[in-house]
Hints:
single chain
Amino acid sequence: MEENRILSETERNWSMLCHLSAFAGFFFPFGGIIGPLICWLTRRDESSWVNINGKASLNFQLSMLLYMFLTIPLCFIIIGIPIIVALGTIKVICVIIASVKAPKGELFKYPLVIPFIQ
Length: 118
């Protein structure tokens, strides 16, 4: 983070929302991508902290989507089903951890991330 400056409450809330909005995917198709994308695009220029968290969340959601699509063919030989369950579990746990850390000013490094957005 930039020189340990104090984060405003708005920055902390928006950074948390960048991560939590990924749960929209449970209610809307591609909501897990659209939610973080909207949060990031609306506040990225106003706060570097929201920009960092938004990109991290979006990169993780895009990576998980890619991994899920690549695993679908493996479901025909049964091995894909536990892989999809594991990916879903990792996704939920990581989003919760990142959502708790972001408003504290701590950056959570998501595992298995492909940096689509630099």
